[in-house]
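seq as requested:
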Amino acid sequence: MTEISNVSGIDRVTFTMMMAAVWIYSLGWIVIKIGLNELPPVSFATLRFTIATCLMMVFIGATRQFSAIKTFEKRDWGIFLILGFVGVFLCYVLTFSALTLTTATDGGVLINLDAVFIAILSILFLNEKFTFFKSVGFFAAFLGVILILTQGDLFFGALTSARILGNFLIIASAICWAVFSVIGKTVTDRFEPALVTGLSFAIGAPMLAVLSFSIEDVGLVLAASMISWSCILYLGVANSIATLLFFTCLKRTEEASRVSVFFLLLPIFVPILAFFIIGEIITYFTVLGAILIILGVYFVEHH
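struct tokens:
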């Protein structure tokens, strides 16, 4: 989720691919909620990224990107280690654990704060300018978060303590993704995004596996139903396809801002899918909060 601009000039094929990617990502939040009915969160994340890593490695090999590894410096391997830890291990332990506590709707909306945190980190560490429009965006996003967290009750009486904790974990996950994105800029400028993503997956997945075997009953995975295994396959395969669609669209347009604008649809699609598929309730405060966060992200990234 990078800079946002208008989508003018995008051809029909690119538009179709990006819409497919956004729908796949959006449905992924509902799929996680369904899978967590039977699967331990870290084990679930481990299997998701094990499958995704294999698929990404096949793609990287087929597109002959492995040769770029020969040009890596020692510093690059340190960066990839951080990316795997923060962007895969820590980010998704938080995300999957959060969804055992909160709703897919809240998660799918609040995760979009990553763009706001990226802007903040860029101002602090990359010397980007702090503008009036960015301040408006920060304020709008902050109000949106408050509305979702409180549901209009400033004393936090409208939500259970578990759901509030889950929402804070989602926000922490968004911060992790922001750190991943900012640090990742040091290597995405020199290497293909698919290679950077694939290697991050390959480093983060074993970390997830170690934690899974350490703290969870992996026997629950073996005893899981076909529905849960379908959830694992969906996240591992479909989300990987969505990622590759996104990379393909970047190559077709050669401008990240034109395709990244589609991710503003996530806070709209996720609540709708959650309502129709798993019966989550969409409140007025959630809708208003989502609108404020979308506007906040737009102002932060567009200006």
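DSSP finds 13 helices and no strands in the chain.
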